[in-house]
Amino acid sequence: MTDTTGRRWHDMGGQEAGPVPMEGHDFALWEKRVDALMVLCSGKGHFTVDGLRRALEDMGEDAFEKHSYYERWIAAINQNLVEAGIYTLEELGMRMDEIARRGESYAEAQDD
Amino acid sequence: MAHDHHEHGLSPSGHPYRSDNDGPLTYWQRMEIAVRELLIEKGQLTPAEITAQIDAMDARSPANGATVVARAWTDPAFKSRLLENAAEASREMGFDIGPLHLIAVENTQDVHNLIVCTLCSCYPRNLLGLPPDWYKTRAYRSRAVIEPRKLLREFGVDLPASVTVRVHDSTADMRYIVLPARPEGTKHMSEADLAALVTRDSMIGTGLPRRP
Question: Which of B11, B80, B120, B142 is an active site residue?
């Protein structure tokens, strides 16, 4: 996590790296919802941007390489909401299991 | 993220649709649904608030920043207010900047500014919309501060050695936007026509405004 220079993995400035990958993508609905949850929950004072960053940075470099941006963001939001006592990990786990039984696609898994 | 998927078409903006728009439900998508439902059930959020926030974010695009730049090009008093306090000056034009500090940095004949967030992904999202994917990559974050001229050449911006390059590293509380230099030959153009010359990348510093 911390190399011999004392910097943590997310402190990337000045390191050697290859060409900038230029391909982009349009955000999927679930990604836009993650972004909205971040803005709304921090606006309501459930966490601060620093709380989110702490969760993101503690995930480590492995998560940065393996998971997409909004995957890491929903994990950080969730961690902060659990810590704030908004719901429990058990409630989250039960709900995620229930959602898995609703269908095989994101659209089918909505509760409506 | 691999982009080699098969027969997928391109979106209206010319990007490939990401596989998670139509693929099997993922663990992280289940987490998003669960978090959202729990927040709603516990009375913390309403579905309408979430929809309104998505609409507000969707409505933000580099066109917003471009109108601010065009105003600064045509109104010297506004330009000095923008350079003094970019958040206040942008609010004056009706843009919701939120609580963050926003600093406009001016490109001139002698100085070229570039913005980056080496630690994460901080970006003037309230004026430009969500950042492009490359802004969040390791390569951009690493190299912008150590070899900006080489990086800029990859973006098609080849600056003479006489131009000073200044790189601004954003933080969660402090965002930057580049005020590009007004192109030559635009003296008689209207503010609206000028705004059409202002690209997203010209406000990040990885590009220059279009020529008229």
Answer: B120
